[in-house]
Protein backbone atom coordinates (compact mmCIF):
# COMPACT_ATOMS: atom_id res chain seq x y z
CA UNK A 1 0.00 0.00 0.00
CA UNK A 2 1.32 3.43 -0.90
CA UNK A 3 2.16 6.12 1.70
CA UNK A 4 -0.37 8.37 -0.03
CA UNK A 5 -3.33 6.05 0.61
CA UNK A 6 -2.23 5.42 4.17
CA UNK A 7 -1.95 9.14 4.87
CA UNK A 8 -5.23 9.96 3.17
CA UNK A 9 -7.18 7.42 5.22
CA UNK A 10 -5.37 7.80 8.54
CA UNK A 11 -5.48 11.61 8.54
CA UNK A 12 -9.15 11.77 7.45
CA UNK A 13 -8.49 14.01 4.50
CA UNK A 14 -12.13 13.72 3.43
CA UNK A 15 -13.26 16.04 0.66
CA UNK A 16 -16.71 17.60 1.18
CA UNK A 17 -17.47 16.87 -2.48
CA UNK A 18 -16.48 14.02 -4.72
CA UNK A 19 -14.79 14.21 -8.06
CA UNK A 20 -16.58 11.38 -9.84
CA UNK A 21 -14.24 11.71 -12.80
CA UNK A 22 -10.96 11.32 -10.91
CA UNK A 23 -9.34 7.90 -11.01
CA UNK A 24 -5.84 7.34 -9.57
CA UNK A 25 -3.13 6.36 -12.01
CA UNK A 26 -2.28 3.37 -9.82
CA UNK A 27 -5.42 1.68 -8.49
CA UNK A 28 -4.06 -0.39 -5.64
CA UNK A 29 -6.41 -2.42 -3.46
CA UNK A 30 -8.45 -0.17 -1.21
CA UNK A 31 -7.79 3.14 -2.98
CA UNK A 32 -11.54 3.80 -2.96
CA UNK A 33 -11.74 3.62 0.85
CA UNK A 34 -10.77 7.29 1.01
CA UNK A 35 -14.08 8.10 -0.72
CA UNK A 36 -16.03 7.05 2.39
CA UNK A 37 -17.43 9.76 4.65
CA UNK A 38 -17.09 9.99 8.45
CA UNK A 39 -20.07 10.11 10.79
CA UNK A 40 -21.12 13.70 11.59
CA UNK A 41 -24.45 12.85 13.29
CA UNK A 42 -23.46 11.19 16.54
CA UNK A 43 -23.60 7.83 18.30
CA UNK A 44 -26.90 6.65 16.85
CA UNK A 45 -25.20 6.20 13.48
CA UNK A 46 -22.41 3.99 12.17
CA UNK A 47 -18.95 5.52 12.61
CA UNK A 48 -18.29 5.62 8.86
CA UNK A 49 -20.53 5.87 5.80
CA UNK A 50 -19.32 3.78 2.83
CA UNK A 51 -22.21 4.79 0.56
CA UNK A 52 -20.25 7.67 -0.96
CA UNK A 53 -17.84 5.30 -2.67
CA UNK A 54 -20.79 3.65 -4.45
CA UNK A 55 -21.34 6.94 -6.30
CA UNK A 56 -17.90 6.67 -7.91
CA UNK A 57 -18.16 4.35 -10.93
CA UNK A 58 -14.57 3.10 -10.87
CA UNK A 59 -14.56 2.95 -7.07
CA UNK A 60 -17.63 0.70 -7.00
CA UNK A 61 -16.27 -1.49 -9.78
CA UNK A 62 -12.92 -1.98 -8.07
CA UNK A 63 -14.52 -2.56 -4.66
CA UNK A 64 -16.68 -5.38 -6.06
CA UNK A 65 -13.69 -6.77 -7.95
CA UNK A 66 -11.62 -6.93 -4.77
CA UNK A 67 -14.45 -8.66 -2.90
CA UNK A 68 -14.81 -11.31 -5.59
CA UNK A 69 -11.11 -11.92 -6.26
CA UNK A 70 -10.62 -14.55 -3.49
CA UNK A 71 -13.55 -16.56 -4.87
CA UNK A 72 -12.35 -16.75 -8.46
CA UNK A 73 -12.77 -20.30 -9.64
CA UNK A 74 -15.04 -21.23 -6.72
CA UNK A 75 -18.44 -22.69 -7.71
CA UNK A 76 -21.01 -20.15 -6.48
CA UNK A 77 -24.70 -20.79 -7.12
CA UNK A 78 -26.21 -17.62 -5.65
CA UNK A 79 -25.29 -14.33 -3.99
CA UNK A 80 -27.22 -13.25 -0.88
CA UNK A 81 -27.17 -9.65 0.38
CA UNK A 82 -28.12 -8.48 3.86
CA UNK A 83 -30.69 -5.75 4.48
CA UNK A 84 -30.15 -3.05 3.63
CA UNK A 85 -26.76 -1.78 2.44
CA UNK A 86 -25.62 -5.29 1.63
CA UNK A 87 -28.15 -5.22 -1.19
CA UNK A 88 -25.93 -2.78 -3.13
CA UNK A 89 -22.70 -4.78 -3.09
CA UNK A 90 -24.53 -8.11 -3.21
CA UNK A 91 -26.55 -7.24 -6.30
CA UNK A 92 -23.45 -5.80 -7.99
CA UNK A 93 -21.50 -8.98 -7.21
CA UNK A 94 -24.35 -11.15 -8.52
CA UNK A 95 -24.40 -9.17 -11.77
CA UNK A 96 -20.65 -9.63 -12.25
CA UNK A 97 -20.89 -13.36 -11.52
CA UNK A 98 -24.07 -13.70 -13.61
CA UNK A 99 -25.82 -15.37 -10.68
CA UNK A 100 -29.13 -14.83 -8.96
CA UNK A 101 -29.48 -12.52 -5.98
CA UNK A 102 -31.32 -13.30 -2.73
CA UNK A 103 -32.33 -10.52 -0.31
CA UNK A 104 -32.06 -11.44 3.37
CA UNK A 105 -34.44 -8.99 5.02
CA UNK A 106 -35.32 -7.46 8.33
CA UNK A 107 -38.52 -8.94 9.70
CA UNK A 108 -41.86 -7.78 8.34
CA UNK A 109 -40.93 -6.98 4.75
CA UNK A 110 -41.53 -10.31 3.00
CA UNK A 111 -45.10 -11.33 2.10
CA UNK A 112 -44.20 -14.99 1.49
CA UNK A 113 -43.35 -17.88 3.80
CA UNK A 114 -40.14 -17.09 5.68
CA UNK A 115 -37.63 -18.46 8.15
CA UNK A 116 -36.73 -16.09 10.99
CA UNK A 117 -33.57 -15.64 13.04
CA UNK A 118 -33.20 -13.24 16.02
CA UNK A 119 -29.91 -11.36 16.42
CA UNK A 120 -28.26 -8.36 18.05
CA UNK A 121 -26.87 -5.73 15.68
CA UNK A 122 -23.75 -3.57 16.02
CA UNK A 123 -25.62 -0.99 18.11
CA UNK A 124 -26.82 -3.59 20.62
CA UNK A 125 -30.43 -3.58 19.41
CA UNK A 126 -32.38 -6.84 19.30
CA UNK A 127 -33.75 -7.54 15.83
CA UNK A 128 -35.08 -10.37 13.66
CA UNK A 129 -33.92 -11.30 10.17
CA UNK A 130 -35.93 -13.29 7.64
CA UNK A 131 -35.37 -15.11 4.38
CA UNK A 132 -37.86 -16.68 2.03
CA UNK A 133 -37.93 -20.46 2.33
CA UNK A 134 -38.31 -21.31 -1.36
CA UNK A 135 -35.00 -19.94 -2.72
CA UNK A 136 -32.37 -22.06 -0.95
CA UNK A 137 -32.26 -25.80 -1.56
CA UNK A 138 -29.95 -28.22 0.26
CA UNK A 139 -26.36 -27.93 -0.95
CA UNK A 140 -26.84 -24.56 -2.69
CA UNK A 141 -23.53 -22.68 -2.53
CA UNK A 142 -24.03 -19.14 -1.24
CA UNK A 143 -21.80 -16.07 -1.23
CA UNK A 144 -23.04 -13.84 1.62
CA UNK A 145 -22.40 -10.11 1.15
CA UNK A 146 -22.86 -7.19 3.53
CA UNK A 147 -21.48 -3.68 3.63
CA UNK A 148 -19.65 -4.04 6.97
CA UNK A 149 -19.04 -6.62 9.70
CA UNK A 150 -18.56 -4.87 13.04
CA UNK A 151 -19.69 -7.12 15.91
CA UNK A 152 -20.59 -9.96 13.54
CA UNK A 153 -24.11 -10.44 14.89
CA UNK A 154 -25.90 -9.57 11.67
CA UNK A 155 -23.68 -11.70 9.44
CA UNK A 156 -23.83 -14.62 11.86
CA UNK A 157 -27.64 -14.52 11.76
CA UNK A 158 -27.57 -14.56 7.96
CA UNK A 159 -25.22 -17.54 8.03
CA UNK A 160 -27.58 -19.36 10.40
CA UNK A 161 -30.54 -18.72 8.08
CA UNK A 162 -28.69 -20.07 5.05
CA UNK A 163 -27.45 -23.14 6.89
CA UNK A 164 -30.82 -23.88 8.52
CA UNK A 165 -32.27 -24.13 4.99
CA UNK A 166 -29.46 -26.48 3.93
CA UNK A 167 -27.41 -23.95 2.01
CA UNK A 168 -23.61 -23.96 2.14
CA UNK A 169 -21.50 -21.03 3.32
CA UNK A 170 -17.85 -21.97 2.94
CA UNK A 171 -16.09 -23.18 6.07
CA UNK A 172 -12.32 -22.77 5.96
CA UNK A 173 -11.32 -26.37 6.90
CA UNK A 174 -13.30 -27.71 3.92
CA UNK A 175 -13.24 -26.92 0.20
CA UNK A 176 -14.75 -23.46 -0.20
CA UNK A 177 -17.67 -23.28 -2.63
CA UNK A 178 -18.77 -19.85 -1.41
CA UNK A 179 -18.19 -17.56 1.57
CA UNK A 180 -18.54 -14.14 3.21
CA UNK A 181 -17.64 -10.75 1.73
CA UNK A 182 -17.78 -7.21 3.18
CA UNK A 183 -15.86 -3.98 2.75
CA UNK A 184 -14.46 -4.43 6.26
CA UNK A 185 -14.53 -7.31 8.73
CA UNK A 186 -13.46 -5.84 12.04
CA UNK A 187 -11.24 -7.70 14.50
CA UNK A 188 -14.05 -8.09 17.01
CA UNK A 189 -15.05 -11.32 18.74
CA UNK A 190 -17.77 -11.86 16.16
CA UNK A 191 -15.50 -10.89 13.28
CA UNK A 192 -12.88 -13.40 14.41
CA UNK A 193 -15.56 -16.10 14.77
CA UNK A 194 -16.53 -15.59 11.13
CA UNK A 195 -12.93 -15.43 9.85
CA UNK A 196 -12.02 -18.66 11.67
CA UNK A 197 -14.89 -20.64 10.17
CA UNK A 198 -15.60 -19.21 6.73
CA UNK A 199 -13.75 -18.11 3.66
CA UNK A 200 -13.80 -14.30 3.78
CA UNK A 201 -13.02 -11.37 1.51
CA UNK A 202 -12.70 -7.70 2.45
CA UNK A 203 -11.15 -4.52 1.09
CA UNK A 204 -9.07 -3.09 3.95
CA UNK A 205 -5.27 -3.38 3.51
CA UNK A 206 -3.48 -4.89 6.55
CA UNK A 207 -1.72 -1.62 7.41
CA UNK A 208 -5.09 0.13 7.81
CA UNK A 209 -6.94 -2.69 9.60
CA UNK A 210 -5.98 -1.60 13.15
CA UNK A 211 -7.31 1.91 12.52
CA UNK A 212 -10.57 0.54 11.18
CA UNK A 213 -10.84 -1.75 14.22
CA UNK A 214 -10.46 1.32 16.47
CA UNK A 215 -12.95 3.30 14.35
CA UNK A 216 -10.29 5.82 13.38
UniProtKB/TrEMBL annotation:
The Phosphoribosyltransferase domain extends over: 75-166
What UniProt keywords apply to this chain's record, in alphabetical order?
Answer: Cytoplasm, Glycosyltransferase, Purine salvage, Transferase
Gene3D superfamilies for the chain: 3.40.50.2020
CDD domains in the record, alphabetically?
PRTases_typeI
| Pfam families documented for this protein | Pribosyltran
Task: Note the InterPro entries from the entry.
Answer: Adenine_PRTase, PRTase-like, PRTase_dom
Q: Which pathway does it serve?
A: Purine metabolism; AMP biosynthesis via salvage pathway; AMP from adenine: step 1/1
Catalytic activity, reaction form: AMP + diphosphate = 5-phospho-alpha-D-ribose 1-diphosphate + adenine
Statement: the UniProt record of this protein carries the keyword Zinc-finger: no
| Subunit-structure text | Homodimer.
Name used for this protein in its record: adenine phosphoribosyltransferase
Tell me which species this is from. Rissa tridactyla
Give the gene that encodes this protein. Answer: Apt1
Amino acid sequence: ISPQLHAQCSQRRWSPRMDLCHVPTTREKGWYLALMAPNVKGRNYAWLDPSRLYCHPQGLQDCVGDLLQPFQGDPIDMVAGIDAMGFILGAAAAAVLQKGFLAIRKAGHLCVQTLAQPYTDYSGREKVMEVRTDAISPGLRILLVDQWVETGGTMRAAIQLVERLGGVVAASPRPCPAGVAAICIEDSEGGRWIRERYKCAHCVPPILQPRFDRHQ
